[in-house]
Amino acid sequence: MLNNYRPDLNSFLIWLVAILVAVLPIMMLWEIARDGLPHLTLSFLLDEPSNAGRSGGIFPMLVSTFWILGVCLLAVIPIGLGCALYLSECIQAENPIARWVGLSLDVLSGVPSIVFGLFGYAIFALHLGLGFSIVSGGLSLACMVLPLFIRTTEHALRSSPPAYRQAAEALNLSFLGFVARILIPSASRGIAVALIISIGRALAETAVLIFTAGYVTRMPSSLSDSGRALSVHIYDLSMNVSGGQNNAAATALVLVIFIILINIFAHRMSRRWQT
Amino acid sequence: MRTNRFVQISLKVSALLAASVLLFILYFLVQESIPLIKTLGMSAFFQGGWYPLEGEYSLTPMLLGSLYVAIGALALAAPLGIVVAIFGQFYAPVLLGKVYRGMVELLSGIPSVVYGFWGLTVLVPWITYWVPPGTSVLAGIIVLAMMVLPLVVLTADSAISSVPRNYIRSAQALGLARWGIIYRLVLPVALPGILSGIMLQSGRALGETMAVLMVTGNVVQLPEGLFKPVRTLTANIALEMAYAVDSHRIALFISGLLLLLMTVLIVSIAHYLKGRRFA
Amino acid sequence: MGKINLYRFLSVSWFLLALSGCGQSNTVKLTLTGSSTIAPLVMELGRAFEKQQPGTRVDVQTGGSSRGIADIRAGISNIGMVSRSLKISEKDLFPHTIAYDGITLILNKSNPVNVLTDNQIVEIFKGNINNWAEVGGPNKGITVVNKAEGRSTLELFLNYFKLENRAIKADVVIGDNQQGIKTVIGNPWSIGYVSVGAAEYEEKHGSAIKLLGVSGEKASTTAIKQGHYPLSRPLNIVTLNKPEGIAKAFIDFAQSSNAAAFVEEQYFIPINAH
User: Fold this and answer.
1) Inter-chain CB proximity B243 and C183 less than 8 Å
2) C174 to chain A: nearest residue by CA?
3) In this complex, which chains have at least 3 CB pairs below 8 Å with chain C?
4) CB within 8 A of A29, min separation 6: which ones?
5) For residue range C213-247, what is the model confidence (pLDDT) as tens digits?
6) The domain that contains A95 carries what CATH number?
7) Does some domain include residue A19?
8) Do both A26 and A152 map to the same domain?
9) How many Å apart are CA C141 and CA B43, to the nearest integer?
10) B71 falls in which pLDDT band (50, 70, 90)?
11) Are C93 and C238 within 8 A, CB to CB?
């Protein structure tokens, strides 16, 4: 849209900004690829780590990350979707409940990640007795990711055309039917973006997981086991273990590829559902 | 629309559940902090210096450090992010726009420790070359801006793409210039969404721990300039929590509480402004 | 049709991946928490121990030396990892040393200065000497890199040089050893202090740092083994009571001569070498 105009001063400046802004991140990504690619072998993906992670692979970490992400999404999607639907469909924006929920979510998104780590440890690990476990980690991450998911989904739902709502009323559709068959599919692109952003934020988090899901590199045998996530592994290898930098870069590369795959998957699914 | 009580109630419950997480965290922080506040009183945390092993717990230098770095990062990332979102939607060829957006989505998922590590090994030596010591407010601002930018771009992009297309077509039919359409039509309509995105990121900027820990130098002093080191409240908690006992530990919780209250203040102001503008 | 098969494949593989971790868990568990410096070593010891004694699990978590002490007192963990000698308030606990670690000062390789007396080091850290020209180097400002409060390395440093943390005028404050090393690599005119093992490793692998000893003694793991080097600390695993059962078995293993190879692999100094 709008991209078949003649170039002028404004467009020159905008192109310049877009290119400059991309320089630093691309440099960073290139460094990860350059340092990590030589160490990215199939055995790296499938082996257990040895020598404190300097050699061996990252398979247990991949599994732990998968599970932590799974627990997190299992908690975030129902509650998040419900809350977003409530905010966009059931009440007016001026309603004090809406204001209060909105305020609380915005403030929640500003809580430092390390406070989530301490909070998660105190509530999930100690108080609820879950200990250092994947469940603790997933739930703490869910608390952190919730406001992001809700706000983005709410925005996607709100921007669905009012004509759809009016047509549904006219046809006497049930609320649930309207939501499931019309609203969510029409907003599916926005919801996919919300999901991508939330997963990205969850995968990127380190401080929270050190205190909740833990440090153990063994393959977790159940959800109540402690398991090291990829971000924690990258942190340990680059900051705590001498000589771990190369594997840290390789792990970061694996994480990057993982994120790319998830993003492509989410976009494909949303296109399938789009009306 | 026809609806049943069950659906209504379950939606309300999930909203209240989501909102109550903050209350739990607030309660947790207050409960941990109360003992020391009772002993020392609130003003003790804003006087003197930060020498926890000797009983001095002034949070002022670090609070200012957090604010300088966060505000600087937002001031850098917000306009750049909006421009990049506009670029992706209106100036770039369709394929390039998609690739650019994909890269931005990718960047939003990279762990903070990777940004911090890159900052420490690449950015800080650059800055050191010009003005030692290198680890400084500037390094913190740049790295934090890099981390906040992707999400600003994504939310702005989302907001811009939900502007009804027929608005733009009508403007084109009237013969308006491209920049005019963007500046006077698309941006104002998309502004609430863009601002809400920026506000979400202001929380992230204040709350970021790992990356600023590695590049800002962590010296507890009042911010003296762009090239001088500072310590943010979050870096302080991360650095010292592992080794703190008793009062020192409680003081760290108090700094966490302070950050939370700061966020409440900023968000309340933003909500108030939003309400006034679009009332 | 292809798309539906793809999604089926992905959901099945996710499920299989999830299942791949399933196993039984009627095993004996040993939990250690504490210092992240010792954690990699204890993790490797734990892994070897598990192979030796099937049916056991050794779980290692970090959180710092203070967390190590707090957790054994609260009964959350079996053994605490503490990267220093015990304080007076901790004298009721039982420490078991499993390795030694030294502290060395490090300079950037491109810094021509090779020797500093103890007095010069003290004055540099206090901020009284702040140009390399005053100690025989070029006319460049000194960037002082200090460790964060509460770290055992900092306390050891302060004790040895009879300094108070208040007196130190630092330009950069760091947390982990690696952060210190990376900072010194990135700034040619900086000075800092880190663990001997880590520094030795980096120097051997071509990083841009060089080790500077203290009190005229060269800093190396060999020097610490031979007992020459004055600035060293014990790495301890601590129990609440006299160890028994699986905790005792693990501590015995960690202090045996079989463990020496693991200790050296993590660039620390084995206890039997003393």
Assistant:
1) no
2) A239
3) A, B
4) A256, B106
5) 777 777 787 777 777 788 888 899 999 988 888 88
6) 1.10.3720.10
7) yes
8) no
9) 37
10) very high
11) yes
Please state the pTM of the whole predicted model: 0.88
- Characterize the bridge pairing of strands C143-147 and C190-195: parallel
What fold is seen in the domain B54-275? MetI-like fold (1.10.3720)
Token pair, residue A183, equals 């609203």
Give residue A175's domain range: 44-274
Partners of A50 in beta bridges: A55
- From the CA of B38, how many Å to the nearest CA of chain C? 24
pLDDT tens string A90-123: 776 677 888 888 888 888 888 888 888 888 988 8
3-state secondary structure of C213: coil
CB contact A124 to C (< 8 Å): no
Does A154 share its domain with A32? no
Would you call C207 an interface residue with chain A, using a CB distance cutoff of 8 Å? no
Q: Which amino acid is at C85?
A: S
Task: Give the ipTM.
Answer: 0.83
Tell whether the torsion through CA atoms of C251, C254, C255 and C257 is positive or negative: positive
Mean pLDDT value across chain C: 83
pLDDT of res. C273: 58
pLDDT over 70 (residue A82):
yes
pLDDT in tens, A218-250: 888 888 888 899 999 998 888 888 888 888 889
Are residues A220 and A67 in contact, defined by beta-carbon separation less than 8 angstroms? yes
Separation between Cα atoms, residue C40 and residue A218, nearest integer Å = 13
Q: Do B111 and A205 touch (CB under 8 A)?
A: yes
The answer to whether residues B204 and B151 touch, using CB atoms and an 8 Å cutoff, is yes
Record: contact B53-C150, CB cut-off 8 A:
yes
Average pLDDT over residues A66-85: 93
Tokens coding C87: 């304080």
Q: For residues C104 and C86, give the distance between their C-alpha atoms in angstroms, rounded to a whole number.
A: 22
A18 lies in the same domain as A65: no
Residues A156 and A21 in one domain: no
> What would the two tokens of residue A218 be?
């063994």
C154-213 pLDDT per residue, tens: 888 888 888 888 888 888 998 888 888 999 998 889 999 988 888 888 888 888 888 887
Residues A87 and A18 in one domain: no
Q: Give how many domains chain A has, as a whole number.
A: 2
